[in-house]
Amino acid sequence: MPKKKEQFNFGKGFEELESIVQDFESREIDLEKDLPRFERGLELAQKLQKRLKEIENTVTSIEANFGIEDDARPGFADLPPAGGR
Questions:
Q1: Which stretch of DSSP H or E encloses residue 33?
Q2: How many domains does the chain have?
Q3: In a domain, 85, yes or no
Q4: Which is more confidently placed, 54 or 68?
Q5: N or C: which end of the chain has fewer CB within 10 A?
Q6: Phi-psi sector, 75: left (phi>0), alpha (psi -120 to 50), beta
Q7: Is residue 54 part of a domain?
Q8: pLDDT for res 32
Q9: pLDDT the model gives residue 8
Q10: How far apart are CA 33 and CA 53, in angstroms?
């Protein structure tokens, strides 16, 4: 019986990528040692972009089902700041 493909966890992936970026920004990079971690960061970025596109397509589909047009949808500028920032 084939294994069910595990869905990518966006939150965990984003946290891991953020951790990699912060680590690289905080110190001198060792090209040999850090190459696998850099590759992991690129892999995560690609998966995050793919998942965002999937979510965007789902939202667009839901909006179409409810007759919501693009210009009637609130943009990010219309949302209150997260965490009170």
A1: helix 31-65
A2: 1
A3: no
A4: 54
A5: N
A6: beta
A7: yes
A8: 93
A9: 85
A10: 32
